[in-house]
Predict the 3D structure of the following.
Amino acid sequence: MRQYIIAGNWKMNKTVSESVALAQSIVAAVKDIKKVEVVIAPTYLACAKVADVVKGTNVKLAVQDVHWKDQGAFTGKVSIDMVKEIGAEYVIIGHSEQRQFFGETDETVNLKAKKTLSAGLKPIICIGETLEERQGGKLETVLSTQIKGAYAGLSEVDALNTVIAYEPVWAIGTGVTASDEQAQETQAFCRSVVKEIYGEKVSEALRIQYGGSMKAENAQGLLGQKDIDGGLIGGAALKAETFFGIIAPAEQLSA
Ligand code: PGA
């Protein structure tokens, strides 16, 4: 069985001191969680301090992006060595906000994924369609292009160290969630694309999260679906109680 992975994407929220406080309350809330992999992604600025808070606990650290070059004149960017040094294990790559507002493309997602894997860290590769694309009948083409672009040149071993986050753009931060059936159907399709590239063994092992207005009220239904192996959580990850409200059903479903 694939292990559930629940990751909190804090986006551009929380100052450093607020981040430390939130991390402390999450660490306390999940101390008895044994089966679910719990990950938090604060802002870059807060990461080093949050790393101290989560060290030695069952909470893992992620960053929200990385650059694909090792170093140099890339104002505003952070390299994988910097991320690795503070002990982060995951890197969120290709979030729809990066794609929409900051020029992320399937090519840069691929470069970032390769760089992350080469340093021994794990990419969480975000994909997802806009409402227009879904309504225009382009859902499968969009997702398959994003997946194939992200995984271009990645070996089977590499692929096994990645997680996919399927996040319908129309469900992110809107309060509108994909229905359990919609999410399941789409994620089964994503898994079939992975199978097309790597075969059954990899596609059955690779974890696919759902993201987009996931919260305590809908977590059980979504996480109960066969091809949903966790969640990438925005709004509901900003409080320990609401984040825990998603982790708890995942732990129960793992029993
Ligand atoms: P949301 O964000 O849970 O606030 O919809 C999810 C995400 O963007 O990862």
